[in-house]
Design a protein that fits this description.
Largest sheet of chain B: 8 strands, mixed
Distance between the termini of chain A: 29 Å
Strand content of chain B: 15-25%
Distance between the termini of chain B: 37 Å
Oligomer: heterodimer
Low-confidence stretches of chain A: 1-34, 36-56
Shape of chain A: globular
CATH architecture of chain B: 3-Layer(bba) Sandwich
CATH class of chain B: Alpha Beta
Radius of gyration of chain A: 20 Å
Helix content of chain B: 10-25%
Structural class of chain B: alpha/beta
Order of helices and strands of chain A: HHHHHHHHH
Number of domains of chain B: 1
Largest sheet of chain A: none
Number of domains of chain A: 1
Number of helices of chain B: 13
CATH superfamily of chain B: FAD/NAD(P)-binding domain
Mean pLDDT of chain B: 98
């Protein structure tokens, strides 16, 4: 297998402010950060000293405030629920994945063309909002909780499962007012990002213990199928593997635990 | 005031497939060549190593191996009555930035176009009559024939180590190959790739229906291969990470795996990365290029004088550079005059998704591992009763089974929730997709020009794309999709979800990076930017490579033809260097 396969992620020593700067030269740790692609905010460093924002899994939030994280856990947990087939999005670490993604370059729309003016276009002209993904989540979650307070006198996270599904369907149908943000735009984004977290390499914090890949039967990024490709109909027997090894979740917990 | 560099013989804009070929050929001819690349240096090690390149989120989903629209993008509209708006993130097509260009992240599907494709106007008029060509379709011959390009197709295929089964060698049909292909001088350099479970299913079903399936030509090496330049490639391991990834195994042909190890050792070749060319400069007559201006990594504007300039960027980027440099007459769709930006075309794709019970292990695959039929490509069938021009292949590609973007769910599967989960569980290992890959003709209403509102990071106006699928293409694609569904239904126990392409064309979902036209080749300077050798009619020491030269698009992936045209043009450049001037008199 690949060199990374045999590596153990070392304990994180320290971060230097907002930068993706590694104090101790450590190739494996650098790989982890490069994969995660996140500029670690100062709040995470504070958390290392017992600071704020400890989520249900004992980990710091890089982007979401606690009440936002409550929404994310509940909503992704309905989009991919835990059932007899295995863990759902929440158990698979999708909320933690989203938190890291939105704190990073994706959340900031770093590669997008974000120059105005901003006229509305046709559907075939694609995304024309001035908001970054991070801004969309922030605005939408606040709006949805307001909607839930008005209709159910509770925030989304406190609703019953069938009420939560009702709200998610209303979002999908464009029936929840979120200021100038169409509610379907947010639901589509949340659903896309939830699938990403469930099915991306566990190195990004989701797909915990290969929950997504075990559900479908994808063995992970393997290098060589020369022997197996002609064995039509046979199950592939090798163990699940991530870019950071066969026990990526333990490695992730180890790394994130320091933060 | 721009800083001025010492002059070079030849400056290349971009450093992907076409630049690598031109550089290799012209340095052999003894001239000094400099390539200017806007992106970064990239190579198999460390950039595509298998300990990190097999990362669907980073490369395919977050698109970190492609160009970044933040710096330069285009604006888009379906028709001239709309206001074009910026493509704010990538979607429908995925050009590259960086050494190797899109040659790094392509699948390796390496086809030849059909002999009739190059003379499509003449051929169509002869077989069906002038009246068969719809109003507004700018159908035109290429100015070069298949027979002229054949040796150059052959060179590109042997450079790349293409794996495949010839169907027509020297006019003799060969069993198992594509019986419709043009005559080739010899077989492919390597035998076909191994077949995967899903391509075997397709092959059986297509035969049952009465078609003649064949292995698709693959620039993924089925065996270890040493190319004519002496560069060694490794045997493909079917890891399933070709398109949208670099190859970590030296198996997929790219500039890095076929040319650069030789080119980079030459004293008369140099390249610079993070240098974005913003202008082709001309002298006071406007008839001679004096070099280019570029912006380096620190934002300095630098002038690079050269005796000869070759545009080797991606199709629409070459057109953009011509427009901002005011070289050639811009196209005017109202009067159908002018040439730069004229005849933009694309391709039209669709699929028939197949749900059946046999385990397919879709994750074992390669970018160009597929079986196809060619009965409905080009003019391989009688178009008379159909009433449209063009065609395409129907294929089953087993490129990989990357979980986020490469899974198929039945039509009635819930979009999310427990039902989605169950559908994923039940279908990921067994579903497959029969696809169609169809031609798009050129129209008066499909063109490129400069946007009046939005600008790139260098202050240039963005390119503006005006394009929609026309009735001819939607009809053709619907016809092809029915054929795909027919094959799908011949797979035992199959349920088929036929997904016809609907208009209008949308910039949002990925379809194909086969953008063509805008600086087309031809024999008439009134309808082409470059002559049949890809030399500018207006500025004879300026040459324009790539798919922007296609007068309209055919029903195959374009890279094989781009490679052949580049070798064809390089041979002409060598003649030009001995006696500079226009190679064709207008």
């Amino acid at each position: 297998m690949t060199p990374a396969f045999h590596r153990h992620l070392p304990r994180l020593v320290s971060f230097n402010g907002q930068e993706r700067q590694i104090v101790r030269h450590d190739p494996a740790r650098r790989d982890f950060l490069r994969l995660v692609g996140v500029a670690v905010p100062a709040s995470m460093v504070l958390c290392a000293c017992g600071g704020r924002d400890t989520g249900a899994h004992g980990q710091a939030n890089a982007f979401f405030a606690p009440e936002e994280m409550d929404f994310i856990r509940a909503a992704t947990g309905r989009l991919i629920p835990k059932d007899a087939l295995g863990p759902g999005a929440d158990e698979a670490g999708v909320p933690e994945f989203l938190d890291l993604q939105l704190a990073g370059p994706y959340g900031r729309a770093e590669r997008w063309y974000m120059k105005g003016p901003w006229p509305r276009g046709s559907n075939s002209q694609g995304y024309q909002l001035r908001y970054t993904p991070a801004q969309i989540y922030r605005q939408a979650i606040a709006g949805i909780d307001k909607h839930c307070q008005a209709h159910y006198r509770q925030p989304f996270a406190k609703l019953k499962a069938d009420q939560q599904d009702e709200v998610l369907h209303a979002l999908e149908d464009g029936n929840v007012k979120l200021g100038d943000l169409h509610s379907k735009t947010f639901l589509d984004l949340l659903w896309q990002n939830t699938q990403e977290g469930f099915l991306a390499d566990p190195a990004y914090g989701g797909n915990r213990d290969f929950a997504g890949w075990k559900l479908i039967g994808f063995p992970g990024p393997r290098y060589n199928y020369v022997r197996e490709i002609g064995q039509y109909g046979k199950p592939y027997q090798q163990p699940f593997v991530s870019l950071i090894g066969r026990a990526p979740t333990a490695a992730m917990a180890h790394a994130a635990g320091a933060a | 005031m721009a800083r001025r560099m010492p002059p070079v013989d030849v400056v290349l804009v971009g450093f992907g497939w076409t630049a690598s070929i031109i550089a290799q050929e012209l340095t052999d001819a003894g001239v000094q060549v400099l390539a200017l690349e806007r992106g970064a240096w990239r190579d198999t090690v460390p950039d595509f190593a298998t300990d990190h390149i097999q990362d669907e989120l980073r490369y395919a989903v977050r698109k970190q191996i492609f160009e970044s629209p933040e710096r330069e993008t285009l604006t888009f509209r379906n028709d001239a009555s709309q206001t074009a708006l910026p493509m704010r993130h990538l979607g429908s097509f995925l050009p590259a930035a960086g050494v190797g260009g899109a040659g790094v992240h392509w699948n390796g599907q390496c086809w030849r176009f059909l002999p009739q494709d190059f003379v499509i106007r003449t051929h169509t008029e002869q077989r069906y009559g002038k009246g068969f060509i719809p109003e507004g379709m700018n159908l035109q011959d290429w100015g070069v024939t298949y027979e002229e390009l054949e040796p150059h197709y052959d060179r590109f295929e042997y450079l790349c180590g293409v794996s495949g089964q010839a169907g027509n060698v020297g006019g003799q049909l060969v069993a198992g190959g594509n019986p419709f292909e043009g005559a080739r001088q010899r077989g492919y350099p390597l035998p076909p790739l191994e077949r995967s479970a899903s391509t075997v299913l397709f092959d059986k079903a297509a035969r049952e229906v009465g078609f003649k399936p064949f292995p698709c030509p693959a620039a993924n090496a089925s065996r270890p291969y040493r190319n004519p330049l002496g560069v060694q490639m490794g045997q493909c391991t079917y890891c399933g990470y070709c398109e949208w990834f670099g190859c970590g195994n030296y198996s997929k042909a790219s500039p890095q795996t076929t040319i650069l190890p030789v080119l980079l050792q030459k004293d008369n070749f140099h390249f610079k990365t993070h240098c974005a060319v913003t202008r082709v400069n001309t002298d006071h007559t406007g008839k001679r290029a004096t070099g280019v201006t570029y912006v380096d990594v620190e934002g300095n504007e630098i002038e690079q004088p050269a005796q000869m300039v070759v545009l080797c960027a991606f199709a629409q980027h070459n057109v953009h550079l011509l427009l901002v440099s005011k070289i050639g007459q811009p196209y005017d769709p109202v009067s159908n005059t002018g040439v730069v930006g004229r005849n933009y075309a694309y391709q039209i794709t669709s699929s028939a998704e197949v749900f059946q019970k046999e385990r397919l292990n879709p994750f074992m695959g390669a970018g160009a591992l597929g079986q196809a039929i060619d009965e409905f490509n080009g003019d391989n069938f009688d178009h008379g009763p159909q009433g449209f021009i063009g065609g395409g292949y129907v294929a089953l590609w087993n490129t990989g089974g990357r979980p986020i973007l490469q899974h198929y769910l039945p039509e009635n599967a819930p979009k999310w929730g427990a039902g989605w989960k169950k559908a994923m569980h039940e279908n990921y290992l067994t579903a497959c997709s029969v696809v169609t890959h169809g031609s798009v003709m050129s129209y008066r209403s499909s063109y490129l020009d400069l946007d009046p509102t939005w600008r790139d990071v260098y202050g240039n106006p963005l390119l503006r794309l005006t394009f929609d699928f026309q009735p001819n293409e939607l009809k053709m694609s619907g016809f092809l999709t029915d054929k795909a569904a027919q094959i799908g239904r011949a797979i035992p126990g199959a349920t088929v979800h036929e997904k016809k392409r609907q208009g209008p064309y949308s910039i949002v979902p990925y379809q194909t990076t086969h953008n063509t036209g805008g600086a087309v080749m031809g024999n008439d300077p009134k309808t082409s930017v470059v002559n049949r050798y890809l030399q500018s009619w207006d500025v004879p020491n300026l040459w324009v490579m790539g798919a922007c030269a296609f007068p309209q698009n055919a029903g195959y992936n374009p890279t094989g033809t781009v490679g052949a045209l580049t070798f064809w043009s390089a041979a002409a450049m060598k003649r030009y260097l001995k006696n500079p001037g226009p190679l064709v008199t207008a």
